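Late entry, written up from scratch paper. The run itself happened at the end of the previous shift, but nothing got recorded in the book at the time, so transcribing now.
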Amino acid sequence: MLKVKDLNVKYGEIHAVRGVDIEVKEGEIVSLIGANGAGKTSTLGAIMGIVKAKTDGEITFEDKDISKLSAWDRAKLGMTIVPERARIFPNMTVYENLEVGGYLVDKETFKERLQFVYNLFPRLAERKRQLALTLSGGEKQMLAIGRALMLSPKLLLVDEISLGLMPKLVDEIFKVIVGLREKGITVLISEQNTKKALQISDRAYVLQNGKIFKSGSSKELMEDEDIKRAYLGV
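Output as recorded:
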């Protein structure tokens, strides 16, 4: 579904992502793991086309070269992103945030997607008239995911979804991610919570200083001694 070849991202003199190759197959959950500053967010941003930096390399989505396409055009092809720290519109209601997320779909599809999101996150339905800034941290993450799902994505990019959440909410959000795969949505997730990311994903790439340090099945990486020491606290 997604192939990234020799991806490079530069912010001035800073070379944040260095020759990264990634592949995501349809129906998978694939994790990008690594420490803060490893290049995970820059990688996802470049894939989505929202990174304001010098970017080169080749990105193909469903065998179509999207390297030069805008984020808008990538979204129309079926790719959406849940950004780091949610980045919802705080002074808009929950419903209005979801309305913005469904800007590309027709009225009937919008109604169907809205019900899908409300079924997935009943709390959003309860709070649909509340301003987004009044939501809890977990509810804001739910809203960010819901907004991204309004476009019926084929591929969902998820950036640091557990950041700042209580452990109980982290478990809840990750359970939702697994459920999305069961509904036919492919997921690429970047995450500092290595253990959780490996538990829910099929495969993973480990980023270190902007480069792929290791890759393989999540099960294999969970047993890798280097990964245990560096990321799992073993």
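Residues 81 and 157 are 4 Å apart (CA to CA).
(Scratch paper discarded after transcription.)
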